[in-house]
């Protein structure tokens, strides 16, 4: 029986766990002057698509250029009359497209994000032809922005740290970069409502104030548009933590709907103090609909929102069992889980893969919101964290999310700064590492090798 | 299970509400802000969605669809069609001259109608706890829009404009054919007369039409839909609900197509009168699968997509079709938690109070460690969104799931005809409420071995039902007369259908 995954159905026959969201691969092509957020968007989009189960990779032409032209001298490389420079840049774009072809046709990729300025119609035409020859759909993402403050902030956040400017001081770097932008400005041909009316694209204006969307062809493009329209760059922090230690936690039992232990309640109090000390403006607090997260939130004495989709992974027949009992009653299941913890589904329960699917609306809303504290559960927190930290499906189920520890995530440059704050209240360890022996014929001892201590 | 009312000294201890199974600080506390739902409680201020566009641009079509969608996902929404108000004020429509810009008398009436509609919007928000009002009118002048904006500002409503722009004469002609000829305005005219009059009506608006201006109106929140969705311009989306509305509007289309809904063939557990579980088809169920394959082939549908759940019985049914199908976990049957695989008799025996609570409010009732219909709707939302995007689809699912999907597609405006090709499987009352209420949803009849074919027409949906002539048990349990928790066993089991 084939299982569906991510938010999309799976073809029943002949697909070896491939998620089929489109019939042919999609090439997303960024368009825009330097410092308009193209790489930011590319990386974020790639991260999101991979998380929901669509194999995606980004191809940054600037990278190719840096590998080719080992040392960056100055903006003169980008002058439109620099023949040598133009030749190299064209070659880099070709090399990148070649890698795109390989990724989408031979390596099982479904979406490739081609991250470059692509500011001339000529360059875009080349890409369109390339896509047609290979049977790829093309979707353009153009970022248009004239706000000098935004551009300045971009430059400060990501350009100054670029390998191109490691040996320059800030003023030099900014000056050079502004001249670099100038090199592109004269030949910039924005996507035109009339001339480009047959293309599929989204034009993002002024960091999301306004969008122009043209000819969305299929499901994946529709999801991409929805995602792009929900992200923002307003500085904010997301706090993730688990409920306080629960009665079932101390007994080494999984799942269930128990209340907090005295130590769990103490954590809730300390969490309240911590949150107050952070002095966060307008903090939203979200919990699941399980008693232990709600009890934790109650201690904060602020309004909170309950989401059923934040409930812990459903362990089906194994609910409220200890690992020892699972090994006793379902040794085969227990081994299968260790073999592929991400895709393994508990009998009459869920898998991590199912969890990701049901958490997608949470992620979408987290993108829309600003400061949020999410009080959830171990498996749920691993899924959310994997999204923000770009972890693979293999790593996700083993991310460490201990009790009584708050993770503060702050978007910075192209990624996320993570601060881990342990609130100094003792709790059981609930993290079970992958044991060495995952064979279905292993001994009980081998199976229980990594089970954490409990009452 | 005893209900405990916490005294003030115990207020710190959480209790789970018996019906919804939500943990609350104490029974009876006001939890509207705390209870999760498919649309989190972000709509603090009510929202007015204001349509803009010349006649025959799909404004009412969009308004009705949007209203239906928002209500289905749990956002109380109501539509206010100014044309209706005009028809009530001016009992008989003579001709397009009513709409001439120099017709002062008519202008006064039209302004009064708009004002009356706006007044009702205000009442809907303040007295009826509505959250979204869809103001369906042409709103083609800046002046008219300014009035609405200033009213909204005064009252603290958010405003989101939806403008439909289309100059394709074929599309407009098709619109006029589909919805205008049936309008009360043209009930005594022949088609050519009506068409001519309507074209002149559109011309009356054209001269004064000022589309939303991307420069002057840059501070407004709006979406412009060009040529039935080939292009969109979206400006200043303010919040979650506007973002959802934009996403929805960008996924709907008007290409003709049909959606087929069916349950799996009769299952082993169906025969035993047991709910839930993951059993296979009975012999009759397998016969149905064969009949379904024959039926589908006879329909000669181009490019049909077939969807099933992850449960054995829907997959077995799809396998017989011999075509590719896709499995959605979201289409799995409602999770009955601790009541899984029990008969109603067993539920009454083991959980009599739960059984009664379910009869009291079947839509919101959540099985212990299970789901409610309300939860089901939430998890089916991506299915609905994808159904909107797709064209011809056959969905093989389950009783509760099918009820939820059907409820999304149905509405009951007065005068809409619902066609049945064989027996009538549902009796809808013509009430003042145009939409199916959540109280009716869990009692929609979705018998085994019957395919429903839904075809969008005009503003609604034509429903044809095909019973494929393979006998099956009845799994429909009506609401019993006595829903009190102290009722006796006989009263509780009064409406349980027969089984082995």
TrEMBL record, chain A:
Record-annotated residues binding substrate?
A: 242-249, 292
Keywords, comma-separated and alphabetical: ATP-binding, Hydrolase, Kinase, Multifunctional enzyme, Nucleotide-binding, Phosphoprotein, Transferase
The keyword Phosphoprotein appears for this protein: yes
Kindly give the InterPro entries that the UniProt entry links to this protein: 6Pfruct_kin (IPR003094), 6Phosfructo_kin (IPR013079), His_Pase_superF_clade-1 (IPR013078), His_PPase_superfam (IPR029033), P-loop_NTPase (IPR027417), PG/BPGM_mutase_AS (IPR001345)
Q: Which PROSITE patterns match?
A: PG_MUTASE
Active-site residues annotated for this sequence: 243, 312
GO cellular component terms attached to this protein's record: cytosol
Q: Which GO terms describe its biological process?
A: fructose 2,6-bisphosphate metabolic process; fructose metabolic process
Question: What highest taxon heads this organism's lineage?
Answer: Eukaryota
Matching entries from Gene3D superfamilies are given as: P-loop containing nucleotide triphosphate hydrolases, Phosphoglycerate mutase-like
Give the species this sequence originates from. Xyrichtys novacula (Pearly razorfish)
Which intervals hold domain 6-phosphofructo-2-kinase? 20-235
**Family membership:** In the C-terminal section; belongs to the phosphoglycerate mutase family.
Protein's name according to its UniProt entry: -phosphofructo-2-kinase/fructose-2,6-bisphosphatase 4-like isoform X4
GO MF, one example = ATP binding
Automatic annotation (TrEMBL), chain B:
Q: Which UniProt key words apply to this protein? A: ATP-binding, Hydrolase, Kinase, Multifunctional enzyme, Nucleotide-binding, Phosphoprotein, Transferase
Keyword check for Kinase, yes or no: yes
The alphabetized list of GO BP terms reads: fructose 2,6-bisphosphate metabolic process; fructose metabolic process
| A Pfam cross-reference name | 6PF2K
Listed GO molecular functions? Answer: 6-phosphofructo-2-kinase activity; ATP binding; fructose-2,6-bisphosphate 2-phosphatase activity
**GO terms under cellular component:** 6-phosphofructo-2-kinase/fructose-2,6-biphosphatase complex
Q: Domain named 6-phosphofructo-2-kinase: which ranges?
A: 35-256
Note the InterPro entries from the entry: 6Pfruct_kin, 6Phosfructo_kin, His_Pase_superF_clade-1, His_PPase_superfam, P-loop_NTPase, PG/BPGM_mutase_AS
- The reply on keyword Phosphoprotein is yes
Q: Which CDD domains match?
A: HP_PGM_like
Active site positions: 264, 333
Q: What family does the entry list?
A: In the C-terminal section; belongs to the phosphoglycerate mutase family.
Q: What is this protein called?
A: -phosphofructo-2-kinase/fructose-2,6-bisphosphatase 1-like isoform X1
């Amino acid at each position: 029986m084939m299982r569906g995954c991510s938010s999309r159905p799976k073809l029943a026959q002949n697909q070896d766990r491939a998620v089929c969201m489109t019939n042919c691969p999609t090439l997303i092509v960024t368009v825009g002057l330097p410092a308009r957020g193209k790489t930011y968007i590319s990386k974020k989009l790639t991260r999101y698509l991979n998380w929901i189960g669509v194999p995606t990779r980004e191809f940054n032409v600037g990278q190719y250029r840096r590998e080719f032209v080992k040392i960056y001298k100055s903006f003169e490389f980008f002058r439109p009359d620099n023949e040598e420079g133009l030749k190299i840049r064209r070659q880099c774009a070709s090399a990148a497209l070649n890698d795109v072809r390989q990724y989408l046709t031979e390596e099982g990729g479904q979406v490739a994000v081609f991250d470059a300025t692509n500011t001339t119609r000529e360059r875009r035409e080349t890409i369109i032809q390339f896509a047609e020859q290979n049977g790829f759909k093309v979707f353009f993402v153009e970022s248009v922005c004239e706000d000098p403050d935004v551009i300045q902030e971009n430059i400060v956040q990501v350009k100054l740290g670029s390998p191109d400017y490691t040996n320059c001081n800030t003023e030099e770097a900014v000056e050079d970069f502004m001249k670099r932008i100038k090199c592109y400005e004269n030949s910039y041909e924005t996507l035109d409502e009339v001339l480009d009316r047959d293309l599929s694209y989204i034009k993002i204006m002024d960091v999301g104030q306004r969008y122009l969307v043209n000819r969305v062809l299929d499901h994946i493009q529709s999801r991409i548009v929805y995602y792009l329209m929900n992200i923002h760059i307003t500085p904010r922090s997301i706090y993730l933590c688990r409920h306080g230690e629960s009665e079932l936690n101390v007994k080494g039992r999984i799942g269930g709907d128990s209340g907090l232990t005295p130590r769990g309640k103490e954590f809730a109090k300390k969490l309240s103090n911590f949150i107050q000390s952070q002095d966060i403006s307008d903090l939203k607090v979200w919990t699941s609909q399980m008693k232990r997260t709600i009890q934790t939130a109650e201690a904060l004495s602020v309004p909170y929102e309950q989401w059923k989709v934040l409930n812990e992974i459903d362990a089906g027949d194994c609910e409220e069992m200890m690992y020892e009992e699972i090994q006793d009653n379902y040794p085969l299941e227990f081994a299968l889980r260790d073999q592929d913890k991400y895709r393994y589904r508990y009998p009459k329960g869920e898998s991590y893969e199912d969890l990701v699917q049901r958490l997608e609306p949470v992620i979408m809303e987290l993108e829309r919101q600003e400061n949020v504290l999410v009080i959830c559960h171990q498996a749920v927190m691993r899924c959310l964290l994997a999204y923000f930290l770009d972890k693979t499906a293999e790593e996700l189920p083993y991310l460490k999310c201990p009790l009584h520890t708050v993770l503060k995530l702050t978007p910075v440059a192209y990624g996320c700064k993570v601060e881990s704050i342990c609130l100094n209240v003792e709790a059981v360890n609930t993290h079970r590492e992958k044991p060495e022996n995952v064979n279905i014929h292993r001994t009980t001892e081998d199976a229980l090798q990594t089970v954490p201590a409990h009452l | 299970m005893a209900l405990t009312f916490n005294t003030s000294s115990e207020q710190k201890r959480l209790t789970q509400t018996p019906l919804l199974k939500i943990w609350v600080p104490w029974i009876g506390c006001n939890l509207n802000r705390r209870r999760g739902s498919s649309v989190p409680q972000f709509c603090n201020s009510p929202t007015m969605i204001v349509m803009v566009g010349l006649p025959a641009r799909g404004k009412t079509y969009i308004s009705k669809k949007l209203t239906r969608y928002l209500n289905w996902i749990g956002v109380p929404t109501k539509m206010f069609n100014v044309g209706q108000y005009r028809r009530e004020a001016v009992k008989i429509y003579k001709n397009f001259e009513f709409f001439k810009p120099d017709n002062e008398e008519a202008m006064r009436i039209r302004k009064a109608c708009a004002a009356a509609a706006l007044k009702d919007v205000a009442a809907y928000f303040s007295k009826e706890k509505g959250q979204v009002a869809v103001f369906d009118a042409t709103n083609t002048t800046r002046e008219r829009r300014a009035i609405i904006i200033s009213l909204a500002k005064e009252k603290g409503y958010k405003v989101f404009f939806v403008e439909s722009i289309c100059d394709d004469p074929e599309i407009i002609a098709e619109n006029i054919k589909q919805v205008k000829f049936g309008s009360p305005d043209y009930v005594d005219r022949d088609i050519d007369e009506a068409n001519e009059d309507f074209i002149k009506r559109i011309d009356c608006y054209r001269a004064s039409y000022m589309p939303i201006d991307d420069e002057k109106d840059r501070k407004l929140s709006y979406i412009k839909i060009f040529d039935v969705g080939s292009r969109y311009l979206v400006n200043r989306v303010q919040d979650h609900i506007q973002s959802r509305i934009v996403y929805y509007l960008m996924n709907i289309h008007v290409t003709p197509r049909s959606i087929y809904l069916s349950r799996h063939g009769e299952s082993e557990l169906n025969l035993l009168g047991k709910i839930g579980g993951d059993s296979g088809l009975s012999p009759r169920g397998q016969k149905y699968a064969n009949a379904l394959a024959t039926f589908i082939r006879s329909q000669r549908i181009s490019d049909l997509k077939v969807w099933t759940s992850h449960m054995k019985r829907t997959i077995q049914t799809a396998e017989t079709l011999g075509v590719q199908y896709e499995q959605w976990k979201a289409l799995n049957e409602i999770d009955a938690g601790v009541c899984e695989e029990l008969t109603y008799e067993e539920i009454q025996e083991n959980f009599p109070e739960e059984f009664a609570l379910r009869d009291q409010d079947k839509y919101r009732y959540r099985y212990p460690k299970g789901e409610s219909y309300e939860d089901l709707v939430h998890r089916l939302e991506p299915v609905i969104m994808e159904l909107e995007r797709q064209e011809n689809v056959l969905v093989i699912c389950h009783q509760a799931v099918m009820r939820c999907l059907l409820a999304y597609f149905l509405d009951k405006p007065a005068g809409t005809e619902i066609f049945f090709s064989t027996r009538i499987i549902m009796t809808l009352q013509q009430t003042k409420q145009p939409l199916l209420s959540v109280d009716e949803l869990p009692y929609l009849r979705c018998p085994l071995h019957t395919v429903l074919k839904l075809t969008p027409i005009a503003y609604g949906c034509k429903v044809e039902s095909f019973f494929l002539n393979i006998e099956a048990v009845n799994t429909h349990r009506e609401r019993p007369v006595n829903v009190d928790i102290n009722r006796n066993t006989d009263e509780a089991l009064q409406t349980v259908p027969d089984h082995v």
